[in-house]
Amino acid sequence: MCAIDPLIYEGREILFNRVSGEHADIQDPPFGWAILAAFGNNTPVILKLPQLNLHMSFGPGDVIAIRGRVLKHSTTPWASGQRIVIPHFTHSSSWTSFGQDSVFEGYTTS
Q1: Residues 6+ apart with CB under 8 A from 61
Q2: First vs last C-alpha separation in the chain
Q3: Helices (H) and strands (E) in the chain — how many of each?
Q4: Backbone angles phi, psi at 47, to 5 degrees
Q5: What confidence score (pLDDT) does residue 89 get?
Q6: 11-46 tens-digit pLDDT
Q7: Can you tell me the mean pLDDT for 73-93?
Q8: Topology of the domain covering 11-92
Q9: What are phi and psi of 9, to 5 degrees?
């Protein structure tokens, strides 16, 4: 898989009207990125990244990339509307099943 695309995102979820408690994505590779795309007609939530002491607005139409395993993250409730978030991610187990220890094992930039 790494020879085809070292940043492949084989995992996706569709989250409807869900508040996310503080967590780290422990199944993600340490160097992997989680891409969070927000949709709906809700008022924005606040995405919290406590290790960076960062709170940012995260509303419909926003796309955010974070290292979900490294950074703990959470969201706040919103005032009104329907909220949909689609996280795109990769899990270490997918790469292990292809005989690789890491998403970036065997990847070269040449």
Answers
A1: 38, 39
A2: 17
A3: 1, 8
A4: -90, 120
A5: 85
A6: 788 999 999 999 999 888 877 889 999 999 999 999
A7: 92
A8: Jelly Rolls (2.60.120)
A9: -115, 95
